[in-house]
Amino acid sequence: MSHVLAFIAIALVVNLTPGPAMLHCVASSVSRGPRAGIRAALGVELGVFVYVVATVTGLAALLVSAPTAYTAVQLIGICFLAYMAWTSIPRGKQGEGEDDVTQRGSGGRPFVKGFLLNVSNPKIALFFLTILPQLVPSGASSWQLLAFGLGFNLSGFTVNTLAGLLGHQLAPATDRLGPVRNVLPWIPPAVFLALTAAALWSVIT
């Protein structure tokens, strides 16, 4: 029972910590609606699930033990963060009809971006390799390890979905912020750019 409680506590702390995944879910929900936020959260957790399976099958250990492969994954993650920064830059107002068509035609993008965002994050691999095995009972089977990983998935999906829905509900309040409202769209690209710089710095130092 203590293992389960420790896992729940750590999973909540990790998932409640704001990061690129949560930011993506909130931005998707605010710009495209709650359903887009849910799709983004599903994509994020599918990316996490890749590492759950990798941990269970032992592939995560192989990745971390191979410095070249690990560095390659880090660089992929950095490039994608830079891409997220670029694509989140405000491009100006679209017409109402054009905006509706764009939302319908790109409905899958929040899911795909969420998936790529987390599947290219080597820190997720490190978490499952170093933390998750310590939270399961000694001698636990692969099925038990998988159950804990799925629990982490469920926790992350719940947190990111709620964050997206909350962001969507609070978005109309920005209409009363006057000039400050013009600054808000630039926050996501600034955050993604800062995360890109931090990730690059961690690689070169």
Tags for this model:
205 residues; mainly alpha; 11 helices; transmembrane
Any overview of this molecule?
It is found in: Cell membrane. Keywords: Cell membrane, Membrane, Transmembrane, Transmembrane helix. The protein is globular. Helix 2 packs antiparallel against helix 7 (109-119). Residues 94-107 have low confidence and may be disordered. By secondary structure, the protein is an all-alpha fold. It has one domain (2-174, 182-204). It has 11 helices and no strands. 79% of the residues lie in helices and 0% in strands. The chain has helices at 2-16, 20-32, 34-57, 59-65, 67-87, 96-105, 109-119, 122-130, 132-135, 142-170, 187-204.
Q: Major sheet, described briefly?
A: none
What is the SS-derived class? mainly alpha
Strand content: under 5%
Principal-axes shape call: globular
Number of discrete helical segments: 11
Order of helices and strands: HHHHHHHHHHH
Helical coverage, percent range:
over 70%
Tell how many strands the DSSP assignment holds. Answer: 0
Q: State the distance separating the first and last CA atoms.
A: 40 Å
Radius of gyration over all CA atoms, rounded: 18 Å
